[in-house]
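Journal club side-thread
Mid-discussion, someone asked how the predicted structure for our own chain would compare to the paper's figures. Pasting it here so we can look after the session.
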Amino acid sequence: MAQQFGMQMPAARKRGSSLNVYTGLAAAAMLALAVACAVAFNAASRVGKGGSPFSFQEKGKIELKSR
């Protein structure tokens, strides 16, 4: 009889979680965000003042690096 109700017993062994489709989608989203950040950083370093991606150009004195 204990065999029949084994799933409902408090000491019954519980199955661990496993990877599913949502885990894969989250990993793909994180990879896409990392690539987008790298592309934005690269583009900002090309147009930033002195090659710095965190500096702003002054109005009327815009300098762009040539490739």
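Post-session note: Residues 33 and 39 are 10 Å apart (CA to CA).
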